[in-house]
TrEMBL record, chain A:
Keywords: Signal
Residues covered by the DUF3823 domain: 34-118, 122-229
Secretion signal, residue range per the UniProt entry: 1-21
Protein name: DUF3823 domain-containing protein
Cross-referenced InterPro entries: DUF3823_C (IPR041186), DUF3823_N (IPR024278)
Organism annotation: Mucilaginibacter pineti
UniProt keyword rRNA-binding present: no
From TrEMBL, chain B:
Parts of the chain that traverse the membrane: none
Record-given protein name: Starch-binding associating with outer membrane
InterPro entries: SusD-like_N (IPR033985), SusD_RagB_dom (IPR012944), TPR-like_helical_dom_sf (IPR011990)
UniProt lineage: Bacteria, Pseudomonadati, Bacteroidota, Sphingobacteriia, Sphingobacteriales
SUPFAM superfamilies, sorted: TPR-like
Organism: Mucilaginibacter pineti
Amino acid sequence: MKKLISISRILIGIAILASTACTKIDNYDGPNASFQGNLVSSEGGNLLTSGGSTQIRLQQIGWTSPQTIPSKFDGTFEDTKLFKGSYKIIPTGGAFWPIYDTVTVKIDKGTQHDFTVTPYIVIKNFTATLNGTTLTLKYDIFAPIAAGLPTITEAQPFVNTTRLVGAGASIRDFSDAFKVSINKEYTDLTDAQKTMSIDVTGMLPGRTFFVRVGVRLNDSYKSYNFSDIIQVDVPK
Amino acid sequence: MKSIHKIIIALSITVGASVTSCQKLDIAPKNIFTADVIYSSEAGVKSVLATIYQNLPIEDFKYRPDGNGDPLGFKHGGNDWENFYNEAGVIGEEVGPFGGMDIAGGFGYWPYGDIRNVNTLIAELPKHTAVLTQAKVDALLGEAHFLRAYYYYAMAKRYGGVPIIQVAQDPGAPLSELQVHRDKEEAVWDFIGAELDLGYQMMGETNDKGRANKYVAAALKSRAMLYAACVAKYGSTNFVDGQARSLGLVGIPESKANTYFQAAYDAAKLLEGHYELYNANPDKVQNYVDLFLKADSKENIFVKQYSIANNTAHSWDATMSPRYFTANALSRSYPTLDLVSLWGDLPVTNGDGTPKRFNDRADLMNGLEPRLLATIYFPGATLRGLTFDMQRGIYPSFSGTAAAEVAKQPNSRSYILAGDTKTLYQGKQIIGFTGPWTGGDELTRTGFYVRKYVDYNKPQATVDLNRSEQPWIDMRYAEVLLNRAEAAFELGNTGDAAVCIGQIRDRAGAKPITGALTLDLVRRERRMELAFENQYYWDLKRWRTADVVLDRAHFKGLMPYYVFNENKYIFLAEPELFNREYTFQKQFYYEGIPGGEIGKNPNLLPNNPNY
């Protein structure tokens, strides 16, 4: 009898332990909030970006280390694995006039927010004309705010075989190889110099390329303002 | 009977317990040394200094600029053998295992534990003049101020402004006192300068090898003040904006530049007459090789020593040369043609653009500056009785210009390459025993190997990992002369700069500079003289030129080929065979304050711009 009692006591103990083990101690929500939006250019449309440059920098209030969401090529951004809470947010790292004031956003499921930025340079009237295997790229540059603009260091084509084309996503022999040094202030450029042209030679026949141009500025990020992307089919 | 036994046992326990209970339990622990033990003798103080010196942030053979391992970055263990993970390998002096600018973000160096040791030392020493004598205490205090400056210098060049802590913090103090704020960058450099002045004033002329004397403090001051001067001058035009900058936590007013240049110049001048350039051997090449290996060199100001017996040896010999010359080792980083070209273009191309034909690859070395030949192993050079056999491949025949050949796609070039040294082309070995080859590590990807610091006297059988003991020369007089020349030039004293550069070039076996000295020439001289000595990485940062020099940068090698039908050799300048790309972003001029430290002390915010 005594034995039975002691065994049952042990069993009861195990049962209590087992049942309490099921209680959730970690009642903190997982990263199920999301944040998305557009980087709107003050000159119309979205700010066109490329890999590894423009970012949305978020810092959750009460925490010390910031995190970033990289902008997509079309100027949108999205992060679906954020913790719910209030964040101080600022777009950074791109070729636009720096923003110093953060906005505070309460991020929850499906939170949307658009940022408006003023690009350093807008690339207009971008055309790509193929003549044999030589691709001629023509474009005009325009600065919404000319005074105090960082030095324009260079312009170059970006050519790739996919729509993901830009700095860090281009074929070096068709892109970096045709870089044009400028190293001038925008205000020192004549109107004629603001109309630019670059020839890319030796395009491979029978292939499809995606092309854009970038104008680079000597700001903190040495970032590019980009044109839109044009598809080029080189005939056989 | 049984009960008697029990009584005896009970009695002996009682007696035993009562006798021992009279002993005091409150005795000093034997494994903790208290201040009065340590400071009762010079040997005790030395034991404290040993730890402080061991952790001193000297960027030596073993320094891992990516911070890999434990302790982070600055190594002093028995198996820190991967000496090819070096700063030279991200700035174009070499190409190596780093895939790009991997190290620029830093590794969170934060040596306040070591600084606490120095602060304790500084607080304790004056209490022990009776035992140690006043003179000894003063000299030791001077040394401590130098050591503290060395730690702060390593932080200032990384982070700009950091908290200046001169008195060891009391762990029991309220949190608000412990969570200190950052000081301004300018204040930190001024503090470093003042500490080194104390070091100069209080230390003696000589000290044990590996320890500082007053001139070591002056030499470090010339280095540190030059850094501060350049931050003021060049950092005021090339910078990343942010809150830390507007608060002065990074950046120094431009108006302070000349004050710091003058301080650097004056400090460098203090060493004149006390140290000299090593010039013992009339053979200029051998002399330059030996200056890094001869213990008695009067050029050495401050050295770090290594020992197989103490389990601290390094692996420079085994990791800078391929297995061909060593017992069991691996090389992985190789000098670039870009570095070699600082000495001028190599004569490998004829006037019409065709590659010059050589009967013997070693002929390329004819007429080159002795310092260049002593810094880098060229094809045809010898080491431990063996010849550097660099050959990238064979051309059955070669026509046209070098430029046209290099511009071709690899698959349309008519050369023959091979996967190993055993493969032959019509009886002729295709690749050389020492590369260049891309099939694995250990053979050059540029056509060159490092010669500086390589101990040519070591028998091949003993060249193994963790078996090199030649000291690292952290400061040598040539650097002090170059610091002085640069500061003098920046101050407009071109004459003195020219004298210093002239001394350096004369010892190097270089031709004197003809025409006017320029800042570019002063800087180039520094790069040539101090190649592979972990200086150029910081030079690029303080000159604020890194983002221009390293902007999607690719570097070149010099590939030797055998032209079969002519029985001659040619050299082609081609992209190095790792095909690395290096980009230095402007934010890297400062590293970010380590995240873990901000977690402990939010008062360190704002972080540096863009972090």
